[in-house]
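Incident review: delayed structure delivery

Summary: a single-chain prediction request sat in the queue longer than the usual turnaround. Root cause was a stuck worker, restarted by the on-call engineer. No data loss occurred. The affected request and its eventual output are reproduced below so the record is complete for anyone auditing the incident later.

Affected input:
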Amino acid sequence: MDKSPLSFFLPQLDGSIFATLQIIFALVFVAAIILIPVLTRLNARPGNWQRRLAAIEGADHQAAIHDTPEQLSQAVATAPERWADVLPSLLLVFGLLGTFIGLGLALNDAAGVLGGADALGSLTPILDALGSKFKISTWGIIAFLFLKIWAMLFPVDAARLAWSTRTIQQRAALAAEQQIQKEAAAGLQQIAPIVQSIDALLAVQRAEAQRAHVRHAELLEALQRLAQPPVGTGRAVSRPEDASA
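Output delivered after worker restart:
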């Protein structure tokens, strides 16, 4: 058996049940550390978050209630982002599960050879290979560390939280503006009857002023007619003068 440090991290391909188990676990770990970062980078975008928010609000037929940016961030997270949050811990537990399965198989093999004549000789290769049962746990720890380091280098959660904060601030500003508009509309509705009353009063005053102007014009015309002397009076005065001459 190869006891080099590199061989400890490689699957043991000896045709045994544990070798098949190692291959299955290795494929799961490799797929996780490749697919999750790639899918997360492809889906963790503001456009996808906005579509998620629109879908949530459309399903409820009303604006979703998110009091804090953290709640909104959790609500709009895409499936790869959710998996990226929980998968490191799952891989760690998955690795421990594989190790316990391997130890269980090794103990079963040990129990089967203890009753033989050369029990110690038969038990030696089993004990020698017992350390390899911890490979799967080691892979789980490596996958856990890899995904955690990737999450620190590419803080998707922080970017989504910042987007959620901006979205809530924008919606709060829009709601405040709409409230101001509603209050202004309510104020205009209250002022409208007063304005209509003033307009009616002004119309009455204009009509009264127009009638007064007409009466004043008629009065002036009447005074002008009274001020003019009659035509016959002038001729009657001129006749005695002509007679005395």
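Verification: The radius of gyration is 50 Å.
Action items: add queue-age alerting; document worker restart procedure.
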